[in-house]
Amino acid sequence: MHNLAMSEAARPLLEKVVRHIRENCDPALAEYERLGRNRQERFSFAPGQLEILDDLKVRAKSAGLWNFFLPDAETGEGLSNLDYAYIAFELGKNPLAQQSLNCSAPDTGNMEVLERVGTPEQKEKWLKPLLNGEIRSAFAMTEPDVASSDAKNISTSAVLENGEWVINGEKYFISGAGDPRCRIMIVMVKTSPDAEPFRQQSQILVPMDTPGVKVLGPMRVFGHDDAPHGHMHIVFDNARVPEQNILWGEGRGFEISQLRLGPGRIHHCMRSIGAAEKALDLMIHRGLSREAFGRKIIDLGKNMETVSRARIEIDAMRLLVLKAARAMDVLGNKEARIWVSKAKAMVPERCCRIIDDAMQMHGATGISQWTDLPEMYIRQRTLRFADGPDEVHHHVIARAERQAFESSNDRQAAVRNWTIRN
Amino acid sequence: MHNLAMSEAARPLLEKVVRHIRENCDPALAEYERLGRNRQERFSFAPGQLEILDDLKVRAKSAGLWNFFLPDAETGEGLSNLDYAYIAFELGKNPLAQQSLNCSAPDTGNMEVLERVGTPEQKEKWLKPLLNGEIRSAFAMTEPDVASSDAKNISTSAVLENGEWVINGEKYFISGAGDPRCRIMIVMVKTSPDAEPFRQQSQILVPMDTPGVKVLGPMRVFGHDDAPHGHMHIVFDNARVPEQNILWGEGRGFEISQLRLGPGRIHHCMRSIGAAEKALDLMIHRGLSREAFGRKIIDLGKNMETVSRARIEIDAMRLLVLKAARAMDVLGNKEARIWVSKAKAMVPERCCRIIDDAMQMHGATGISQWTDLPEMYIRQRTLRFADGPDEVHHHVIARAERQAFESSNDRQAAVRNWTIRN
Amino acid sequence: MHNLAMSEAARPLLEKVVRHIRENCDPALAEYERLGRNRQERFSFAPGQLEILDDLKVRAKSAGLWNFFLPDAETGEGLSNLDYAYIAFELGKNPLAQQSLNCSAPDTGNMEVLERVGTPEQKEKWLKPLLNGEIRSAFAMTEPDVASSDAKNISTSAVLENGEWVINGEKYFISGAGDPRCRIMIVMVKTSPDAEPFRQQSQILVPMDTPGVKVLGPMRVFGHDDAPHGHMHIVFDNARVPEQNILWGEGRGFEISQLRLGPGRIHHCMRSIGAAEKALDLMIHRGLSREAFGRKIIDLGKNMETVSRARIEIDAMRLLVLKAARAMDVLGNKEARIWVSKAKAMVPERCCRIIDDAMQMHGATGISQWTDLPEMYIRQRTLRFADGPDEVHHHVIARAERQAFESSNDRQAAVRNWTIRN
Amino acid sequence: MHNLAMSEAARPLLEKVVRHIRENCDPALAEYERLGRNRQERFSFAPGQLEILDDLKVRAKSAGLWNFFLPDAETGEGLSNLDYAYIAFELGKNPLAQQSLNCSAPDTGNMEVLERVGTPEQKEKWLKPLLNGEIRSAFAMTEPDVASSDAKNISTSAVLENGEWVINGEKYFISGAGDPRCRIMIVMVKTSPDAEPFRQQSQILVPMDTPGVKVLGPMRVFGHDDAPHGHMHIVFDNARVPEQNILWGEGRGFEISQLRLGPGRIHHCMRSIGAAEKALDLMIHRGLSREAFGRKIIDLGKNMETVSRARIEIDAMRLLVLKAARAMDVLGNKEARIWVSKAKAMVPERCCRIIDDAMQMHGATGISQWTDLPEMYIRQRTLRFADGPDEVHHHVIARAERQAFESSNDRQAAVRNWTIRN
């Protein structure tokens, strides 16, 4: 459990990824973003953008960097969560990196789910083109009218009629559903309202072009529609899909979530830390390159301490996330879920703070388009809600902690020894 | 100094402003913003927007709410800073309010400066149409290539040649310069590089259409160009203006800043607190209207304490800003500048936190277009740089504090009495 | 409500208090504390200490500084809470000041209660010697076996038998009960267990020498017994007092609390701020008097910002407490209780932080006997529990805030205007 | 570097330590502390205390738990820093544990130094009885009159005269020097004022009974003299020791510090975390055992989140300290010093906060003698100064970080790729 070292076997892969980002993604980023800013039509790519992405993909494939996140279909072997975490950290440093390697969210989670619980037909139809990077996908969970922090609230219904699931409801923040390449959604629905609370939900495949699927428009995050991929607001108005589109069977929605959420959260967290590391670099760079009142900015006031605190936080977060990844490898997703919650509750909140400190050290430039800090901040701020708001994870952790205390005679006895009167 | 009550005389004005916001601005806001989102061309108004603004102005004028921020030209009397602060608090609750009353930044500061130090010709040409709300104006201070926190760094030069000032340099974050109605800028320039440090700068009137004034484009704040008004990036390339466009004479740039910055900062701060108050309302409203895990959201976890802390912070900030306004009234801008710095260092930072807490209580909706919280957050975050970053104000305060200590025999004696060994 | 200025009438009193502290208390402090450190027997004064205190009292009386906190018995007039707050601020700067003026807690609260609701006999017997400074008193409220944050939990019982109240129960943290001069306690007891929740408690006068009152020993605060006054742990074992020792009648315990707690909390808070002000002085003094790495300590790292933040916090707290005092004067204790809770929830927590920052700037000396910072810290830390823990006050504030929101149609309407979807 | 697992070989030792603490130390603690509270004479043990300690030592020895922190004298092998860190964590949970195993500070550091650089005579005379637990020792470094954060300031002088070092100066916070068993001090002195800055200091052995060594009394920490061991204030007034008492030669004082400080800081940090873990247990225990307002205290307000945040912080700190220990094992003390500084800057500050939260959840009991929380708090607060204040460690970390940035072309290039304008 405490060996957090990357495996020797995975090390060359990490090095290839680092080289790919440095040699391919980093030089392409500025141009890709420049093109995007001039985009006229929102939910398509600007001319030239898709070519940049496709070129990066070709380079990645030719370097053997493709779908490495997936277990080998035949041997069942694959990258451990721990090894993947090291790679995800690097991916966090450049926003093009993930997609160029075909390992963007939510595709990775969707592919994993299809790989694990999909039928052969489902795999042929959706997994194959996803693995080839030909299409993209979405995951529709959150609903606007209920507190999404309590997943039992989910109310989009799916009713079986004549061999078809008839879906009605409303979802929002469906990330990636605006991408013109997006073809398929996995949708969390309530199929069994009379079952026990955690068996009422199912997950179901819904093609984007299904009649009755109405994309109302994007949810803007801090005012951004994040075109072309977007975070869409979708209504299901008697949308019908074949009975066999259900994944793994009725009532298994929560079980599937558990499959996908652990690794996804770890990936998110490690990318977040990669972003914080980048923010630290920007902070130091700025602090060294400007002067005021006769001294370098980094030498003014609390700035050196700000750098130190960022360094400490990043290192501590990194170790905690590696530990959570290791826990998933050793204990399995279910047993490791407290560790995942610890990472998820700790990381985005603190990355927000580090990026915010980096902004402050830049002066007004730090909130402008001349750095990527605002985008980085917004992304991290969003992650404090994605896959469960911080508060839910804190609750999970505290509940486990009190249960552990209650079931440990040793801890209780020690407390009694320590407390003269209680 | 400690009487922070609004004057009886000003009370009816406040009530009229409150009514104007409630009856006119609040109902217009949603439509104004909806129109803006669909704007095709960036730096113009969307069809219908200007009409909404003009209509609000007409209503304001007919209610006698026009240019009340200015001292009476003949009697010299006007609203005290303290009275104005109460009004600014209300203005912070609706982003249309200021403009509808012709008291938006930077116009107010510019009008005040013109009123106080402008020549009759300058007043006729620029102050009059500003007072009528026919044109708008900008204030060009910050430069991209130097640490703007140290105003002595400002390097845009103005050289007198043949009765004209020839201006060369680069400015950015020139708020309002994108507004199609903006006609005039006050520009901070270095005219006297050999004078003593605080006498090198001057302020000068530069019409927007002066040849050599090149608007490179907007600085985006968290990715937003804030069209139509924008925060422009401008190059002065041998821009020439008549000798008499200088304000108050060569080398008086810092003096003029002192005139404008005190009240401006107080207005900003009170509007910020008004925004925080609105965020608190939104927080409570959301907390009461959703349920999770069988309880209202406001009753979960730390949410009640978050509400309480927001309430306390808002009240404390409000009192501090009122005190700073009162200090300006009693002591004058110069003597009161420490109080202004206290307000400026305290308020935007904490308003950011309160708004951020409100976001968190909303779940993902809190960072979407379904509330104004993201815009509110961005505005407050920006204010941590505007008119001097937090760090500069903290430095000003601490320096004053140590000087006060050093010059007080009583305080030093008391410390000696308290410290057995020092 | 917003006029926070001290009355002209009270100003000479403030000046006299300041002079008394500077000329009498400050010079006496070091010697008083030195004597105390060498005390052999804990719950008595060290030889010489009482003489110092008595001498200070004589000086105070001769300066007309005696019992000024009380309303005039005949005219009913007295110092307003606002005026008193200004004085309390000064009292916070020297721990001998209060007692020398006969206005230490809990005597002030006890005297106020006796003055307001005592019978002529009760006044003659207990109020008179208290007013003369001949005896001291205690207030017994908190109990060790229940969560004292919920006052309804209080379980010490008083049962009427043959014209006597028979008291049984256990109290702790009874401040001042260790003082050899302490003669009388006001005890909160449950007399009417069947009444509605807020009518079950009464307050009752119990002489310290009543048989059945067993002082088990002091509660140590951070290990200190705070001799000679102490925070005693007391058991009531069939302690009997005459029927007429009840104050104001059965079931009025909470009403009496309301009388005393408002002003008491304000006094505590203002003294806390006075202590924070002193900590700021110490911080600056130390920062200016030592050097490291070639610079004054105050100029290293974040120290100047720490000074600034302390200054801002102190000023903001001061204004908030003055406002709470003013609210009590204008609205009465009951209506003003939210303001009192705001002060109480804000002040001790932040004073702890300021004092802690002052410690840090002193290096190890800051936690040693060479400054008073540790005592100051402990006192403030204790206040986060006294008269209700922070959490209870936050709850009171948030509850009031949500009720205010729920009952304001204007606020709700404005939120609806601002929220596109809710 | 990333394998943070305890070695298999050391695991049985850890288990024995855990058992020793649980079976021997925990049951003895309450009695030991009770005896100490009744101690009459300060700088001796209370009757019975030494017997408890000696009994624990006998039990430890018989379990093979003795001096395990030291490398084997013959093989040079010993416990790795990483393995020791796991054990130190457990030692932090009971204040008697360290001493019972003969591994208290500053003895461990002193023994390590003697083992590594002592002459055979020095070892025979001082190391042997220390290893046997017969005597104790002190380390005299900090001086009251200079900023100890800058070690170059140290000014106690040692001048060689007639084969003797004549020592003059003043030291304070000499921990353990009050223990009646303390016989020897290692003293940091300036021997070579004309050498380059880091070669001016030496360390020298000074027996406690040397004439001219005057113990002025204890420095009180938060008012506590921490008798019997104490933190003494000592004047060296022409104290003379033989020439050969110098350690490792003139001018090597800083080199010796480097030997001792790394491991010592790691041990401190791990014990701190052990204490925080204990505080978390106390917090949960209290939260579960009291009720207010109809709910368990742990279920009120932010308490569950407080528990969660404590859990996360403890786990993150633990991993960071293990990493630092591992870095010392792999890289050596010198290369690993940045990691040690990270641990030292992070841990005591956050442990203070966790313990403070635990106090708050206890109500007033939390600051009383009925829990050990106040002692725990004071210990952690002290550690924010010991072995360098937080600020010095932050400075070391930030300086290393900017140097790493400046010497990495890759990081600089990536920043340039990311920053459109700089």
Automatic annotation (TrEMBL), chains A, B, C, D:
Q: Which molecular function GO terms apply here?
A: acyl-CoA dehydrogenase activity; flavin adenine dinucleotide binding
Q: Residue ranges of the Acyl-CoA dehydrogenase/oxidase C-terminal domain?
A: 251-400
The Acyl-CoA dehydrogenase/oxidase N-terminal domain extends over 13-134
Taken from the record, one Pfam family name reads Acyl-CoA_dh_M
Keyword terms? FAD, Flavoprotein, Oxidoreductase
Task: Using the record's annotation, list all stretches that form the Acyl-CoA oxidase/dehydrogenase middle domain.
Answer: 138-234
**Record field: transmembrane:** none
Q: Which GO terms describe its biological process?
A: fatty acid beta-oxidation using acyl-CoA dehydrogenase
- Which cofactor does the UniProt annotation name? FAD
Gene Ontology terms: cellular component: cytoplasm
Entry's family note: Belongs to the acyl-CoA dehydrogenase family.
Summarize the subunit comment.
Homodimer.
Which protein are we looking at?
Answer: Acyl-CoA dehydrogenase
Per the UniProt record, the source organism is Paracoccus onubensis
